[in-house]
Amino acid sequence: MTEFEGVAETLGQALTKRGYTHLTPVQEAMLRPDLLDSDALVSAQTGSGKTVAFGMALARTLLNDNGRFAFAQAPLALAVAPTRELALQVKRELEWLFEMTGATVASCVGGMDMRTERRVLERGAHMVVGTPGRLRDHIERGSLDTAGLRAVVLDEADEMLDLGFRDDLEYILDAAPAERRTLMFSATVPRSIANLAKRYQRDAVRVSTVAEQSQHLDIDYRALTVAPNDRENAIINLLRFYDAKNALVFCSTRATVNHMTSRFANRGFSVVALSGELSQNERSHALQAMRDARARVCIATDVAARGIDLPGLELVIHADLPKNREGLLHRSGRTGRAGRKGVSALIVPHNWRSRTERMLRAANIEATWANPPSVEDIQARDRERILADPMLTEALSEDEQAFAQELLDQHSPEQVAAAFLRLRRAEQPAPEELLNTAPVERPKRQRDDFKNGVWISLSVGREHTAEPRWLLPMLCRAGHVTKHEIGAIRIHAKETHVELAPDSIERFMEALGPGQKVEKTISVTRLEGIPEPPKDAGPRKPYARKKPYADKKPYEGPKTDAHTPPEKPKAKPVEAPAKPSPKPKPNPKSNSWSKKIVDQADKPVEKPKRDPWKKKPERAAKPERPTKTAPKAKQAQAETDARPTVRGVPQPGSRPKLGLNFKGGEAKSDGPGGKPRTKPKSKAKGKPKGKKDFKPKFPKGGRKQRTQDDPGSRPLMRKRVAKKGG
Description:
Blueprint: H1 9-18, H2 25-29, E1 40-43, H3 50-62, E2 77-80, H4 84-97, E3 105-108, H5 114-123, E4 127-130, H6 132-141, E5 151-155, H7 157-162, H8 166-175, E6 181-186, H9 191-200, E7 205-208, E8 219-226, H10 231-242, E9 247-251, H11 254-266, E10 271-274, H12 280-291, E11 297-301, E12 315-318, H13 325-332, E13 342-349, H14 353-362, E14 368-370, H15 375-387, H16 398-410, H17 413-426, E15 454-458, H18 468-479, E16 486-491, E17 496-500, H19 505-512, E18 517-519, E19 522-526, H20 631-642, E20 645-646, E21 649-650, E22 667-668, E23 677-678
Parallel strand pairs: 1-6, 1-7, 2-4, 2-5, 3-4, 5-6, 8-13, 8-14, 9-11, 9-12, 10-11, 12-13
Antiparallel strand pairs: 15-17, 15-19, 16-17, 18-19, 20-21, 22-23
Helix pairs in contact: 6-8, 10-15
């Protein structure tokens, strides 16, 4: 039986060697009998010893009866952490905790050589700690055997979901055996964590060691209101005021981290940066510099600082405010660990105060609102540190005493002390002057200020469109008073009563002059006492007790239903048409194509309906228009018909019968079949070869006229050619 009840003997020896005297609440909760070999969903404060807690829980599942491990082969337990730093930290914690059990702990994190990790896994390991992405790669490549897993631990599960590792976590949990033990540790338990636990845990026991109302009791929250341009100066004064051994400054972007790192390094701070753009070696060197006290300030982003453990971290500064309550708790949880006190300072611009107050209420945190430390506050704090420095009370060595006596022989004690102060201040960055961010509290205007006010009357009222928005500036301009010296303004139908402060009435009346007028048409009269409303004003119109549209009937919807077709309207009776009047007789001299005049009154009221699918009746052809033949044309035609022909061929000495399309020329009878043909036209002279003759589309005479032989031809218009510049 060890001094730690319920802990294996080998683990108890490791705890004693580490300096543990008692267990934390979360560690004691994991040793409860009802949690033996059962799944658990644990919510505990960051820095409460969760790594040692689930290490002791795993020991009850993995260790043999003798409290040791057998020969290492396939992994027995798998621990998943959100970041590389947290995974390596968990590995170190498990190594010293299981030091006397013969355990082999391997790590699989991003940024490391994957071939080296594969060789370590091939040699065998009892426990494997890694990040979700790298563990999934090893499982897919077959280098990590999950068939023998007895337990899976998800450390900082809520952070892993926030970082987008849900798919990787589900893949790892699906690859693990169904008969396994699943432990989930999270600072908060949002709905996403509850759903994940419901899917992959069996009858999980909910463990909560710290109430939400008592979270982070070891952390002093301070909200400092600053001007937006004084954010960096306020952080410098905070670092100087607290003079913490280790301080962590949170920023939202990498660019802000780089900018602040350069600014603080130039001011004399020993600072390191921690962001996602750094390699694993650079991140390890930065954290080691903080642990070795070579650097005192670490400026980091949210993602890069997840899960890091800096021993002795005393101050956390939120340069950029967190997005939600979970981010605030995770950031602040870096300090106040293992029973130590810490400070979490929020730099709040003026326009972010209400939003910050809502976030603090959501996190059940009470913060102290104040201004950043000023130069006087920092100097006073420096004096306290110097006076309380233990070096002033230590005994002097012989060399120190001889040198001190030599200084006192050459200089006065005041000069030696002043030189010591100058050297001390030269080693530290100088504080910054800040803008006055204290809110200006203006005294509220009370009605008692006009208890003995003097009233005046203006000869303008509601009938003259009098309104306070133009009466007030007019009175201030004409009477040389301010708006704070003017009290109540009562506008009536024909006059207006205004209240003035007692000490300003004489100045007001003197500024108006002998005419006592504010403007040409507005006169002022001083009244005695409080004026009564004019009698002709009548009682004030009472407010309407009902809404202006109370009598309006509510909308009853459309008159016809949209699903039923509306009823066809009944046809109106058609009146009998009147007897048509006799049609006018056609005039024989009128044009045959002109429209006939028809009296519209004689037509029936309704036209016969036509079937849309029935073809239109074809129109009758227009009758041929009789044409008169000229006497000369008749005589020429008679002479042509009288000439002799043989089989239709004109004989020599006779003229051929001219047709309608004849264009001139002599006819020849050597054509095929004895048919006459005209002589082909020769090409125009002077034109280059290869080009066709230009033939006008229309004859020179203009459009083609209708004739009796071609009644169906349509008139052809000459093609118009646009003139240039027309």
